[in-house]
Design goal:
The chain has 132 residues and is mainly alpha-helical. It has a domain of 78 residues: Multidrug-efflux Transporter Regulator, Chain: A, Domain 2 (Orthogonal Bundle). The chain has five helices and two strands; from the N terminus they run ααββααα.
Length: 132
């Protein structure tokens, strides 16, 4: 069986959504944000090249890594086109790792404070160890 993508007509948004696991509304949103190229139209309907699946995968992996849509926009389109993907990722990942380290430190502090609170048996705020 020949799919629409293989027949040269491109994939409809529903086919892209099923193949990628990304909702059609999200695909349209990514287009509006400039993350995905505007697809060609045939009969008034969007028709996608199969390369859109790889771009959607890059977007989803980048989101899983904690990148914002603005950062993903930079990753995809904010470098000289000759810059290899690995160099793009490394440039953005360095600063993201600093953010993640700060987030981890904050979470560890929160955990320590919550644990101290669980151990506190004070009867008044003046006697509360957590507030020390």
């Amino acid at each position: 069986m020949v799919s629409a993508a293989d027949s040269g007509t491109g994939m409809a948004i529903g086919e892209v959504a099923r193949a990628s696991g990304v909702r059609p509304s999200t695909i349209r949103y990514y287009e509006r944000r400039g993350l995905l190229p505007v697809p060609r139209r045939s009969g008034g309907k969007r028709r996608y090249d199969s390369r859109v699946l790889q771009l959607l995968r890059v977007i989803e992996v980048s989101k899983d890594a904690g990148f914002s849509l603005r950062e993903i926009q930079q990753l995809l389109h904010g470098f000289d086109p000759r810059t290899p993907p690995s160099a793009r990722w490394q440039a953005l990942a360095q600063s993201k790792l600093c953010e993640v380290d700060a987030l981890i430190a904050r979470a560890q502090g929160m955990r320590a404070l919550l644990t101290r609170g669980l151990e506190c048996g004070c009867l008044t705020l003046e006697d509360c160890r957590v507030l020390e």
